[in-house]
Amino acid sequence: MKWRKLGHIFDPKPHGFFGDYSAFAQSPQALVFDDFVRIYFSTREPDADGTFKSHIRYVDMTPSFEVIAVSHDPVIPLGKLGTFDEHGIFPFHVTRTDAGLYGYTSGWSRRESVSVETGIGLSISHDDGHTFERIGDGPVLSASVDEPFLVGDPFVFTKDKQYMYYIYGTTWKTGPDGVAERTYKIALATSEDGRTFTRYGRIVDDVIPDESQALPTVFEAGGRYHMVFCFRDTFGFRDDPTRGYRLGYAYSDDLMQWTRDDASLGFERSDSGWDSAMECYPHVFEMNGRQYLLYNGNAFGRDGFGVAVLEDV
């Protein structure tokens, strides 16, 4: 597989989402229209206590990735007091269905003993993706007996039915610095209506001990299904590039059984610049007959995102 990087296409800082604090455009996810592409992403709103909330905005771009317009208002409000998405939505995956535009949210809320809990919600747009309304205050997929916490990062691929690839937490462990860190893996659930899902469990193998896997995205090319995701070590990933996020890859012939093969992805960190220390939160989409890969770079998307095009499978 051969990807060609087209460059850093969106920097959030000039757009002033939160005054002096306008960094971060995380987890870019595309919705293609006839003559432009809308890319949803998560911004960070700082709180006085040093924490933050995640809000969803979008940028409209030409097919050559020139900015047309930027949404300064969130496309969906945060959840009510005590709900699973009270403190943020990150990421936000939009897909076209027979029932209209479905926006799958990865909502998160703060915890006391650990930093966060997450769940997957569903929203619907009635205005071509400018805004979304929840179908209810609760999640459509959340913690269960076998997946006890941190259910999130939904990506829905439609074939004979809806295949939702997502992540779930397996452990919380206290690191050398005394901070609890989470480990999570990629799993699969399927649905006939996009609302009620049957879980199939974990589907992607590890390549390093205590590996966390995130943001699966699936596409079809060359007679096979392909998954791109990111992975990192459980500890030290924030400051050590050798432990931080990099992109992984798996392939499948049936959307159910997946074979890990990172070396075949053909996508490496740059020698310098905005994506030299980290590559994370990938999203693959088709536009004008070609496959494009959106991704964040250093510091989990502080500087926005870039794009690459698939030149050979």
Characterise this structure.
The protein is mainly beta. The chain has 1 helix and 20 strands. It has a single domain, classed as 5 Propeller (Tachylectin-2, Chain A). The strands form 5 sheets. The chain has a 4-stranded antiparallel sheet. The chain is globular, with a radius of gyration of 18 Å.
| Strand neighbour order, sheet with most strands | 1-20-19-18
Instruction: Estimate percent helicity.
Output: under 10%
In total, the number of domains comes to: 1
Question: Structural class of the helices, strands and pairings?
Answer: mainly beta
Q: Strand tally, please? A: 20
Major sheet summary line:
4 strands, antiparallel
Query: What's the N-to-C terminus distance?
Result: 4 Å
Percent in strands: over 45%
CATH-derived topology:
Tachylectin-2, Chain A
Q: Let me know the average pLDDT.
A: 95
List keywords for this structure.
globular, 4-stranded antiparallel sheet, 313 residues, Tachylectin-2, Chain A, mainly beta
